[in-house]
Amino acid sequence: MSIQLAESDFQILGCFPVISQLRPHLEQDNFVEQVRYQMKEGYQLAFLEVEKQAVAVTGFRISTCLALGRFLYIDDLVVDELKRSHSYGQQLFQWLIEYARNHECKHLSLDSGVQRFAAHRFYLMQRMSITSHHFSMEL
User: CB of 116 within 8 A of CB of 123?
Assistant: First the structure.
């Protein structure tokens, strides 16, 4: 078992089966291109691999804002639905915390859909706090 950043197109594509469980609107044909585009804006993709297969995937970025200073923002965090309850999500989350600390971040944050009750329980068990409401509108 190992956790690493997806750097090659092969590694990025290997994350698709897992991340598409969280983001079902994504299409495999342009997934690598989309991730590469986001990487130009600071996005990174990491995965936990077991027996040469990604079983948990996270997409994140490091940024700075007036409210938080330097922080790591988690865009995506998902464990393969057939591999849950093996602590893979917790291991990947702990890796993100260490990554943030090693990159001088003072905060780690994420947004989670209001319907994702199991994810909310997981984040609360990881000692995260609900600190704000997120508002949005489609344009």
Answer: no
d(CA 55, CA 73): 21
The span from the CA of 35 to the CA of 12, in Å, is: 8
State both tokens at 36: 């590469």
CA distance 97 to 92: 9
Structure-derived torsion over alpha carbons of residues 48, 51, 52, 56, reported in degrees to the nearest 10: -20
Contact 78, 19 (CB under 8 A): yes
Q: Residue written as tokens 């859909």?
A: 113
| pLDDT surpasses 80 at 84 | yes
Residues 6+ apart with CB under 8 A from 85: none
Whether 126 and 90 have beta carbons less than 8 Å apart is answered as yes
Vertex 20 angle, CA 16 and 21, to 5°: 130
Q: What is the tally of helices (H) and strands (E) in the chain?
A: 4, 5
pLDDT for 130: 83
CA 105/CA 132 separation, integer angstroms: 19
Average pLDDT over residues 16-21: 97
